[in-house]
Amino acid sequence: MRILVQQKSTGLYFKDIGAWARTSAEAMDFVSSSAAIDFCVANKLKDMQIVLKFEEHQYDIVLPVVPINEFPGERKNSPF
Question: pLDDT by residue (tens digit) across 25-37?
């Protein structure tokens, strides 16, 4: 399995700082989904999703990266 960061609106995959790829084969592979999310948050990337890519594409999983302040009904300073 590969763990990738993809821009939702363009479909481009993160390749390197300042570089995006059209195909998943060219994309940077993150060591974990939490590392990919941390990368998006640390770099203030918006409109991103994490793509878990498997050899059999029908098993691919796409997870949106949603900033904490975008959750509906969120209470400030609440751990829940």
Answer: 999 999 999 999 9
Say what the pTM is.
Answer: 0.81
Task: Say how far apart CA 50 and CA 13 lie, in whole Å.
Answer: 10
Picking from 63, 71, 10, 22, the residue whose alpha carbon sits closest to that of residue 40 is 63
Q: What is the 3-state secondary structure (H, E, C) of 11-64?
A: CCEEEECCEEECCHHHCCCCCCHHHHHHHHHHCCCCCEEEEEECCCHHHCEEEE
Share of the chain above pLDDT 70, in %: 82
3-state SS assignment for residue 69: helix
Q: CA quadruple 37, 39, 5, 68: dihedral positive or negative?
A: positive
